[in-house]
Design a protein that fits this description.
Layout: H1 2-13, E1 22-23, H2 25-34, E2 37-43, H3 47-56, H4 62-88, E3 94-98, E4 103-109, H5 111-119, E5 123-128, E6 131-133, E7 138-143, H6 151-155, H7 158-162, E8 172-177, E9 197-198, H8 213-222, E10 234-239, E11 245-247, H9 248-259, E12 277-280, H10 290-301, E13 304-308, E14 329-334, E15 357-360, E16 364-367, E17 375-379, H11 381-398, H12 404-413, E18 425-426, E19 429-430, H13 446-449
Parallel strand pairs: 1-5, 8-10, 8-12, 9-10, 12-13, 13-14, 14-15
Antiparallel strand pairs: 2-4, 2-5, 3-4, 6-11, 7-17, 16-17, 18-19
């Protein structure tokens, strides 16, 4: 399979179309104000060519697909980036490369260097480095754990699925968030260990969480003792977000880690360790397009991307990127009283109905990062996405060969139509019709998707 990857990379790297690179007006203004800027350079040799070739091939096993995909993307990037890296090596700049998107980060770019980059025939666009927000929980509170299953776990019927012997065993999940307190009593037993953690910010050797958000969301996905939907699944995590924001560079590094995991120091990549799904709480109203490369690679790898739809409120057309794209499952939030959460963003996204589904997201109790026995309640579409990730793990445990289409078919066909109508209509679709732009196909149901 490596031979296939090398042939693909060499063939694709030469397919560069001569056209002027795009540069945003905001970048020009920043350069004028600051004198130098940190930029991302997108090369014309797009990874989509690699992915379309991979998607056209048949593989005997998922492991073979993952190995070939990882090798092809890396070889493609190495071949097409060689010339620009040689050029940048002569400049006084700091450079970081990304194979999943075939982009190069360049720091301290002045006007002269920017002009040279834009003029290169292998450059598609240059944009200024930016961060995207973490979907912060609404009204978080430290609380005591009670000895029963949490309301979200119960309302979606997860215990009924467990009673059939399905707790998510055999499924490996991941999240890209603020990290995870891996020693927490409800998370320590199913941490993946080696190939289970990567930290682009601080390079820590073991998982930690300086915010609490990532511990909370992972607890809802796989936590023990009634806080998690799929407590039999194993987990990995990548710190894509620091405390409140997520840099594009960190998100790209985490996307690469999810696609082809490494040890915590970035060594010994093993693409066969990739998870089956990845839950995400980062979002942006700025449709910059960088995440398109990420979700396309995940889909080619058979990794299901699940995203919080956003906490911008119930106004039409308020859904966040990349939850608003077709390639991922975008999740809205509901309350224990079966109403739409007041903060849950609403579609459509162009002609696309979004969110795809809604799930418990208000007043959700889960693990917290304060200590190994701490818990907190929080509200947000991040919590809803975590419930959905847990149900996807249960579906994959029951049906290991399911791909994105089959998983979403099970997810959507099993959803309930029990959420109280707001009386609203977005995109010309009233919320009494399903799917709609408030709760998509309905409210998440584990037992409905796995009858």
């Amino acid at each position: 399979m490596l031979k296939v990857a090398l042939v693909l990379a060499v063939a694709i790297a030469v397919q560069v179309i001569a056209a002027p690179a795009h540069i945003s007006p905001s970048l020009k203004q920043s350069l004028k104000t600051k004198g130098s800027v940190n930029v991302f350079v997108t090369l014309k040799a797009r990874p989509s060519i690699v992915l379309s070739r991979i998607n056209s091939l048949s593989f005997a096993t998922r492991e073979q697909r993952l190995i070939t995909l990882g090798a092809s993307l890396k070889q493609h990037a190495a071949a097409s980036q060689e010339s620009i890296l040689e050029f940048l090596a002569t400049k006084q700049v700091t450079v970081q490369t990304f194979w999943i998107s075939n982009q190069v980060s360049v720091k301290n770019v002045d006007a002269e260097l920017l002009a040279s980059l834009v003029a290169r025939p292998d450059v598609l666009e240059v944009f200024e480095e930016f961060s995207v927000p973490l979907e912060q929980p609404v009204d978080p509170k430290i609380v005591q754990k009670i000895a029963e299953n949490e309301w979200g776990v119960k309302i979606i019927g997860a215990p009924e699925v467990w009673a059939k012997g399905n707790t998510g065993k055999g499924v490996h999940v991941a999240n890209i968030d603020t990290g995870v307190r891996y020693t927490h009593q409800d998370l320590k037993d199913n941490f993946a260990g080696d190939y289970g953690w990567f930290d682009p910010y601080f390079g820590t050797p073991t998982p930690d969480d300086q915010n609490g958000h990532g511990t909370h969301t992972m607890g809802t996905i796989v936590g023990k003792n009634g806080i998690g939907v799929a407590p039999g699944a194993t987990w990995a995590a990548c710190r894509g977000c620091d405390k409140s924001t997520c840099t594009v560079a960190a998100l790209l590094e985490c996307a690469e880690f999810v696609t082809c995991p490494t040890l915590p120091d970035g060594s010994n990549a093993d693409c066969t360790k990739a998870p089956r799904l990845v839950s995400n709480s980062w979002a942006s109203s700025r449709d910059q397009g960088f995440a398109d490369y990420i979700v396309a690679a995940w889909k080619a790898a058979g990794i299901i991307g699940i995203f919080a739809i956003g906490n911008s409120g119930n106004n039409c057309n308020s859904v966040s990127y990349p939850a608003n794209t077709r390639e991922v499952i975008g999740v809205g939030s509901t309350t224990k009283d079966e109403t739409l959460s007041y903060f849950s963003s609403v579609g459509p996204s162009g002609v696309i109905i979004k969110p795809d589904i809604a799930a418990p997201g208000s007043d959700v109790r889960s693990a917290h990062n304060t200590n190994d026995q701490s818990y907190a309640t929080g509200s947000g579409t991040s919590m809803a996405a975590s419930h959905t990730a847990g149900v996807v793990a249960l579906i994959l445990s029951a049906h290991p060969d399911h791909d994105f289409a089959k998983v979403t078919e099970a997810l959507y066909s099993g959803a309930t139509h029990t959420v109280t109508s707001t009386g609203g209509s977005c995109g010309g679709i009233p919320d009494t019709q399903y799917p709609n732009n408030y709760v998509g196909y309905g409210r998440l149901s584990a037992i409905g998707s796995l009858p």
